[in-house]
Amino acid sequence: MCVKKDTLPFLQVLNTIVGEDDFLYFLNQKDLDLDCNLPVEKILFINGLISIIKTKLIPIELYALWMVGANKKKTLDCYGFGHPEPLKKMLCYQKCKEVEQFLKIAGYFNKSKAQVAS
């Protein structure tokens, strides 16, 4: 996961993961401008898309991967791959609890698949 919890995007440089806030801070320190002199409307549109991704698409993806039966089984098989079995089970349990907590806060935990899809 990235440095700041539940924040995307992130950069991976060798074995280090740098979160969104960190590299934006770095770019601001160097006086680099990411908007390339875009008009205000375009910047607002881009920020709106990022907001939709954070508030709608990420919870839907987490719901589909961790709450839907067949998908959850496949996700649990893949999550923690390469770790010994006791650690893998602990990591899966922790991640399930994190996802459940996130979905409760986002309002997706008690929804059915049909409600999430609409």
Task: List the SSEs and their pairings.
Elements: E1 10-13, E2 16-19, H1 20-29, H2 40-66, H3 69-78, H4 85-106, H5 113-117
Antiparallel strand pairs: 1-2
Helix pairs in contact: 2-4
Low-confidence stretches: none
Terminal-residue CA separation: 28 Å
Question: Mean pLDDT, as a whole number?
Answer: 81
Strands of the biggest beta sheet: in what spatial order?
A: 1-2
Largest sheet: 2 strands, antiparallel
- State Rg: 18 Å
Number of helices: 5
Structural class: mainly alpha
The secondary-structure element order is: EEHHHHH
β-strand number: 2
User: Which geometry do the CA atoms define?
Assistant: flat
What fraction strand? Answer: 5-15%
Helix content: 55-70%
Report what the structure shows.
It is a single chain. The chain is mainly alpha-helical and 118 residues long. The chain is built from 5 helices and 2 strands; from the N terminus they run ββααααα. It has a two-stranded antiparallel ribbon.
Overview in brief:
With 118 residues, the chain is mainly alpha-helical.
Search tags:
mainly alpha; 118 residues; 2 strands; two-stranded antiparallel sheet; flat
